[in-house]
Design a protein that fits this description.
CATH superfamily: Dihydrofolate Reductase, subunit A
CATH topology: Dihydrofolate Reductase, subunit A
Largest sheet: 8 strands, mixed
Helix content: 10-25%
Number of helices: 4
Number of domains: 1
Low-confidence stretches: none
Number of strands: 10
Radius of gyration: 16 Å
Structural class: alpha/beta
Strand order of the largest sheet: 5-4-3-6-1-7-10-9
Mean pLDDT: 93
Order of helices and strands: EEHEHEEHEHEEEE
CATH class: Alpha Beta
Strand content: 25-35%
Distance between the termini: 17 Å
Length: about 180
């Protein structure tokens, strides 16, 4: 397993997906897991976060304590409190610089589906909330090639009374060095 990322921060996807790899329906998650939202906040706090425009708009505002970098092809898109870029490569460069400036180890990639797919070749780690559901949806997380990824941790989530399903937090680490 490669733990070397050179001089750049580790690039970490944080994602929630169902048994059928579904991550979204109509620009939102097809489940309610307040307990996992606490995990998401903990995993992302203080780190630069890359996300697509639609994902940002579904959240509705910048999340406190994180530098948010929004990828969009819309040259006119703006929102207070975020940085806007036009490609995943540009987003990674900006996020790496922010992480180095702030002295944090990780850059977070937080979706949606197209951003995950474009960032996966450049990703070192995936922290996945695997949800014990098979909902209908319109966006899936890509299958992981076992020749490139290994499960380094699997922990049962603490299901709360308002959670729609049981879940596990699974960490995948890349077996070979990710792209630059």
């Amino acid at each position: 397993m490669s733990d070397t990322t050179g001089d750049r921060p580790r690039r970490t996807i944080v994602v929630g997906y169902a048994r059928n790899r579904m991550i979204g329906r109509d620009n939102w998650m097809p489940w309610q897991l307040p307990s996992d939202l606490k995990h998401f906040k903990s995993a992302t706090m203080g780190k630069p976060m890359i996300l697509g425009r639609k994902t940002f708009q579904s959240i509705g505002k910048p999340l406190p304590g994180r530098t948010m970098i929004v990828v969009t092809r819309d040259p006119g898109f703006q929102a207070d409190g975020i940085q806007v870029v036009s490609s995943i490569r540009q987003a990674l460069d900006v996020a790496d610089a922010v992480a180095n400036r702030d002295g944090v180890r990780d850059v977070i990639i937080a979706g949606g589906g197209q951003i995950y797919a474009e960032a996966l070749p450049f990703t070192d780690r995936i922290i996945a909330t695997e949800v014990a559901l098979e909902p209908e949806g319109d966006t899936q997380f890509p299958e992981l090639d076992p020749a490139h990824w290994i499960v380094s941790s699997r922990v049962a989530g603490e299901r709360g009374p308002r959670d729609d399903a049981a879940f596990e937090i699974v960490t995948y680490d890349r077996l070979s060095a990710a792209g630059d």
